[in-house]
Amino acid sequence: MPLSGIASDIGLSSDKMDTPSATSSAEEKRRFSRVHLTIPAQISRSGPRGSDYPAHLRDVSASGAFCYTQLVLTLGSPVRLSFHVPVAGREVEISCEGSVVRLEAGERHAGVAIQFARLQLGETEPYALE
Questions:
Q1: Residue 13, class by beta-carbon neighbours within 10 Å (0-12 exposed, 13-18 middle, 19+ buried)?
Q2: Parallel, antiparallel, or unpaired for β 53-60 and 90-104?
Q3: How far apart are CA 28 and CA 15, in angstroms?
Q4: How confident is the model over 40-54, as pLDDT tens digits?
């Protein structure tokens, strides 16, 4: 399935991927629309020794995501995030690479905002987000 088809099926349609968000709030000028998606995910530090840790997505867009995890990270840390979404009766893995752009302290889990540099939907070629 082409990138645009999978993206459309999970709410990241190509028009949302290419068009700035209509949000006009001064606090929240987003480049892409966000989708509320509360599902389990895996997060790791990028690199050969990065072990997967459980995470839980809060929302995702074509350019980033926000999740909760117990993995201790710092601003600017390169990370890999992966999760599965149902598409046309099957599970499709979405794998993203990016960096931590915001951290929110929590009692048990930290909130982590990630800006994607690369995004791969299923078995398609990776998509650079530059």
A1: middle
A2: unpaired
A3: 19
A4: 999 999 877 778 999
